[in-house]
Structures are given as C-alpha cells and as structure tokens.
Amino acid sequence: MTAFVWIFTDSLMNMVRHSDDMRAIILIALLVATLYALPKAGKALLLSLRHQSLEFNIREAALVLYRTMHELGLLEPAPSPRRIGVKKDEMGPVVWMRGGTTYEKTRFLNALQEFLEPIENPRYLLYRESKLLWLIKRRDYHAVPEELGRKKEYAELFLRKWTDSMGPARLIFTRTPEGRKKLVQAGMRALSAAFVERAERLSVWR
Question: Where on the tree of life does the source sit, at the highest rank (predicted)?
C-alpha cells in the first residue's frame, strides 16, 4: 500500500512540477490522504456493523442463548438458524421458537426476555464495549438470564458462545461491592432498556 501511494504521488507530482495551479496540489494532498485513510475507515465500519445494536442482531443473540441452553441440557431440540423465527412489524421485532414442547418454548422465551428487558437484579451482567468510527465509545450491559446465572460455569459458557458469535465481552458478578456499583450503572444506561415493549411480545406461539 505504501509503495502504491509513493508511485501514485510521484506520478502526479511530475504533472504538477510544470504547473502553478495550486488547486492541483490541493487535490493531490486530498487523494493521498484518502488512500491512507481508506483501510482504517473500512475496518472501523466493519467493527461498527459487527457490534451494532441488538435490535438488528436479535436473531444472533437468540441463537447464542439457545445454543448455550441446549448444551446445558435445558432445551432438547438441536439448535439451528431455522429454530428461531424473527420478523418485524409496525411495533418492532417479533421472536418465536420453532419446534420443541410448550414448556421448552416458554423456558427459552422467558430467558430471552430476561436478556432483553431492562436490568433488575441478575447475578451476572454481560458487558461489551465498541467504538463507532474511533469517536464514540458504546458500553452495553445485558442481564445474564437467571437459568444461566445460577452457576458460574453456566454463565462462562454463555460468555464463550457470545464471544465466538458476537464479539468480545466480559462477565460482571454483581454480588460484590464493585459488582453492585456496576449493576446500578447498568440499570441506568443499559441498551437493553430500549427493548422493554418488544420483550413483552416475545411469547408468540408458532
């Protein structure tokens, strides 16, 4: 990339050496700056898309939760992208589970509802950070559902599956003084608070 920019700049400068047109020089500077910036801008855009809000990643988040519960023996039907149904209507995303018993559907949708609803008093929080084009740092908190938060190893399995599918995150144990402070912060600024009305509509049977 550096060699290309040097050759590109040298060629253009040869054209400008015989010209007093300052606008051409300014144009060259802008083009070179753009060439240098493109790789970083592209990478930042990919990161921002990867860590976009859960409103657009709700299916992926639901699949991470389902895979965790299946591995722990809490749900029997094998996980697959078709297992989770998501559609949008005038009220926002509607989520349902295909297959399984009524009990399993209730169990899964209750856990997903806990994850998406405003944070109350979970044992563990899922915390993640992301930056939007180097300028805006976003901090997101989500409650680890009760069935996964009852044991540390359950919560850690959920974290591993989340990291594999959705990107870096970490767990916060809320039953310590420092954890309590984080819990208060999470309750005030959790991204998941925006889902309260939609979470109430998760129990849609198909």
Answer: Bacteria
